[in-house]
Design a protein that fits this description.
heterodimer, A: alpha+beta, OB fold (Dihydrolipoamide Acetyltransferase, E2P), 3 domains, 8-stranded mixed sheet, 4-stranded antiparallel sheet, 12 helices, 18 strands, elongated, B: alpha/beta, Rossmann fold, 2 domains, 5-stranded parallel sheet, 7% strand, globular, THDP-binding (chain B)
Chain lengths: 459, 419
């Protein structure tokens, strides 16, 4: 095979950057004529059949079915020693020396990496400056940030956080998610720019199906490994996050004497406030939820009752004049409590961005150990699961935790009349070694006061 | 007239009546009937099922007192030529589509299904007449004598045009929807002035091509107002292919577009756009009308875009396969082939020859396209002004420096910055 013609994946739409090889219509050794269909590809726009630009024998299929490759990648090599049919003259193939990359006939329009609107061509300066950390990333992120975050006083970390709650995904993935009834927000994204890929969606679907299927067959004898003694008993090795969670909970529950208190709160004004924030231009593209107000309330109340933001060491009580606010999050890896560092310094909007970023990172299973260290007080949002309240267990090293129950409309007596209001229950657990009943009560009352009247935050 | 048509005209009546009876609580029950009272619109003149047809869908000849004589005057050779043109442009279209799929064109705009509308109207033109196309008039281009390979330069991005319109009286493709209708009227008004200045000038008319999607653009309205006001020799030829990318025609207009002609006070003709003989006859009539100084005509050719809007479009996302299949039974080529065979106007040898001619053209187009190479942006700098200009030189120098700053540019210095 002395002379091969390579066919590079073209951009069959306008500005597409990649496509999946769905199926090959030819195999090695087949003879093809110009315009014979050789492959079916799926782009973000549609499924398309590609006709061969060359006549000859198929010498190599360079991409496997199911693989997604960038536009411009050689996908097939066609040998030219077989004579082309008379009626279809062979295309003009540049007779470059044999070097796979340089030899390929360049489809000149819209298909080289240069035509790719999304990726950036490497600049000479960037390539030589090996010491500069990830200059390309910085270059891409920088122009986007000012456009979407008009407030200029954000810390750099917050700028890198996702600006919008809209999940990135290509149209076919969106459609598939819609068809499957899957909320893309729930799917961990692994795509290059944080987009949910088809693979992500399918693995989420597999997991969901497995769980749902499992429910139906749960009472049947289990199959699988580790079932030597009784097929009706399933043994799961305790490891990783599960093990760490168990250890921490035992440590906390049996070393810190917990006292739990509860308070019902009329959160109607909080709901109203959240609604207004959502509609405000300043919070455009930022996810706002009642949890944001609660977080702010907790920070506010801790400043008025500093002992709740502390650590018990045995011979000392360490009061922290900063708030690393922990948020308990269910993640693909298990329970995690990442915290927002120096949350006391964040404006409402910055806090909203930080909460979103924390949740997105946790959901993606990408929470780093450093994100979980140095927490000073934790909030657990059990209301997200529709639960009214509970007795949370304190995160080790802290002395207080607040459980945020679901907010729903309930009959409420106001000025002697029963009217529907948005009611929630706050639960708090405190380490009695540090926080006595009256302090815990005052702290919880302060948090409740903010939820009842968020305007107090202006105080 | 179908129920939808009636309902549509009802709403017109309501709109018109309410201007004279504001706040009277006019409702459906008290609406005046069409044509009953002075000042109330009559029902639409042309319904959605009515169109001039000289060949039915099986290729049987139909008679029309006004238009059949135009066909009777044609030689068999000419009618065979209609078929040949349609078949050739279809083959060309398939080759261009393949070239796009092979990465040789950035985009292609398929014409499949609209061959009769284009060949029929194109063949009706005299050489002095002038056509203003959209970006899909490949069939008209063929009738104007263009080398079809020239059409691909634009779609390969190597040229902003691709041919000299003065040689063929076929204007450059216009990608801005409906803009060409204004140019067409301007050109037609120019013809009027040439005639006024020198009565010996050969009378000519202009054809303004546009589609159902463009019909919603303001430009079309303005051009028709001007054409009517000035009695300009222009034929507005609308290929209503039923889809404005993904928007179905019913959304563009509640009534056949031809009815708009009445609003401008110009003749309107609705023709079966897949019947090449009817399209030819109707276009010939309209061009004669315009050329003889009677003013503009609107022709609505009812046809169908069998393929995608462009190669970047996937019609399965917005329309049913059944609809495409229905329109394939109305194929303009099959219809004329059936007629030619039934009338013994053409034999197998003819059809084989046409196929071979098509393949030959396709091979020529492929070869010419591959030989085009890539675009050279430096050539753009060279054509900004007739003579060298210091600002352009400065900008070119900046561009050269910028291009050289990329890693890949160092390896491929001669690439020309076409990306």
């Amino acid at each position: 095979m002395s002379k091969l013609s390579y066919f590079n994946l073209p951009d069959v739409g306008e500005g597409l950057t990649e496509a999946e090889i769905v199926s090959w219509k030819v195999k090695l050794g087949d003879t093809v004529a110009i315009n014979d269909i050789i492959v079916e590809i799926e782009t973000a726009k549609s499924i398309v059949e590609l006709p061969s630009p060359y006549a000859g024998m198929v010498a190599q299929l360079m991409v496997a079915e199911g693989d997604t490759v960038d536009v411009g990648t050689p996908i097939i090599a066609i040998g030219s020693e077989l004579a082309a049919p008379e009626t279809t003259p062979a295309p003009v193939v540049p007779e470059a020396p044999v070097a796979p990359e340089a030899d390929v006939m360049k489809p000149l329009v819209g298909s080289g990496p240069k035509a790719d609107a999304v990726k950036r061509r490497p600049r000479v300066a960037a390539a030589s400056a090996a010491l500069a950390p990830a200059p390309t990333v910085a270059a891409v992120a920088a122009p986007q940030a000012p456009a979407q975050v008009p407030a200029s006083n954000l810390p750099t970390q917050a700028q890198a956080a996702p600006k919008s709650s809209r999940v990135l995904a290509k149209p076919p993935v969106r459609k598939a998610a819609k068809d499957l009834g899957i909320d893309l927000n729930e799917v961990s994204a692994t795509g290059l720019r944080g987009e949910v890929t088809k693979k992500d969606l399918l693995s989420y679907q597999d997991q969901r199906t497995a769980e749902q299927d499992g429910a139906g067959s749960f009472w049947a004898p289990a199959t699988g490994s580790g079932l030597a003694d009784d097929p009706r008993i399933e043994r799961i090795k305790v490891k990783g996050v599960r093990k760490a969670t168990a250890k921490a909970m035992v440590e906390s529950a049996f070393s810190a004497p917990h006292v739990s208190i509860f308070v019902d709160v009329d959160a109607s004004r909080t709901m109203e406030f959240v609604k207004r924030l959502k509609a405000s231009r300043d919070f455009e593209g930022i996810k706002v939820s009642p949890l944001l107000i609660l977080a702010k309330a907790v920070i506010w109340a801790a400043a008025r009752n500093p002992s709740v933001n502390a650590t018990w060491t045995g011979d000392e009580i360490i009061i922290k004049h900063f708030m690393n606010l922990g948020i308990a999050a269910a993640t693909p890896r298990g329970l995690m409590v990442p915290n927002i560092k120096d949350a006391q310094n964040l404006s409402l909007k910055e806090l909203a961005i930080a909460l979103n970023s924390l949740a997105t990172t946790a959901r993606a299973g990408k929470t780093q150990p450093a994100d979980m260290q140095g927490g000073s007080l934790t909030v657990t949002n059990i209301g997200a699961l529709g639960i009214d309240t509970g007795t949370p267990i304190i995160n080790p090293g802290e002395v207080a935790i607040v459980a945020f129950g679901t907010i729903k409309q309930k009959p409420w007596v106001l000025d002697g009349e029963v009217i529907p209001r948005w009611i929630t229950t706050l639960g708090g657990s405190f380490d009695h070694r540090v926080v006595d009943g009256d302090l815990s009560a005052r702290f919880m009352a302060d948090v409740a006061a903010i939820l009842e009247e968020p305007a107090l935050l202006l105080d | 007239m179908g129920a939808a048509q009636q309902a549509a005209s009802d709403s017109h009546e309501a709109a018109s009546a309410s201007t004279s009876s504001v706040n009277t609580g006019l409702n459906a029950a008290t609406r005046p009937q069409a044509g009953e009272s002075a000042g109330v619109l009559r029902a639409n003149a042309v319904g959605s099922d009515e169109a001039v047809q000289l060949l039915d869908e099986q290729g049987h000849a139909l008679h029309d007192a006004t238009f059949s004589p135009y066909i009777a005057a044609l030689s068999p050779e000419t009618i065979r030529g209609f078929y040949r043109d349609m078949a050739i442009v279809r083959r060309f279209d398939a080759e261009a589509t393949a070239l796009q799929r092979q990465g040789e064109l950035a985009l292609w705009v398929p014409v499949v299904g609209q061959e009769a509308a284009q060949i029929g109207s194109g063949r009706a033109m005299n050489s002095a007449d002038y056509a203003f196309p959209t970006y899909r008039e490949h069939g008209v281009a063929l009738t104007r004598g263009l080398d079809l390979a020239d059409l691909l330069k634009l779609f390969r991005g190597v040229s902003n045009g691709g041919w000299d319109p003065r040689e063929s009286n076929f204007h450059l493709y216009t990608l801005v929807l409906a803009a060409q209708t204004l140019h067409a009227v301007g050109y037609a008004m120019g013809i009027q002035r040439d005639l006024a200045a020198d009565p010996a000038t050969e009378p000519a008319a202009v054809v303004a091509y546009f589609g159902d999607g463009s019909s919603s653009e303001g430009d079309v309205h303005e051009s028709m107002v001007f054409a009517a006001s000035y009695n300009a020799p222009v034929v507005f030829f609308c290929q209503n292919n039923n889809w404005a990318i993904s928007v179905p025609f019913e959304v563009q207009s509640k009534v056949p577009l031809v009815n708009r002609a009445g609003g401008y006070g110009i003749p309107g003709i609705r023709v079966d756009g897949n019947d090449v003989l009817a399209v030819y006859a109707v276009s010939k009539w309209a061009l004669d009308h315009a050329r003889e100084g009677h003013g503009p005509v609107l022709i609505e050719a009812s046809t169908y875009r069998v393929g995608a809007h462009t190669t970047a479009d996937d019609p399965t996302k917005y329309r049913e396969n059944a609809e495409e299949e229905l329109w394939k039974t109305r194929d303009p080529l099959q219809r004329l082939e059936a007629y030619l065979r039934a009338e013994n106007l053409a034999d197998d040898e003819f059809f084989t020859q046409v196929k071979n001619d098509g393949d030959e053209l396709a091979a020529h187009v492929r070869k010419a396209t591959l030989a085009l190479g890539g675009a050279d942006i430096r050539q753009k700098f060279a054509t900004v002004y007739a003579e060298a200009h210091p600002l352009v030189a400065e900008e070119l120098a900046w561009f050269e420096k910028y291009e050289a700053s990329f890693v890949d540019a160092q390896n491929a210095e001669t690439e020309g910055g076409a990306a």
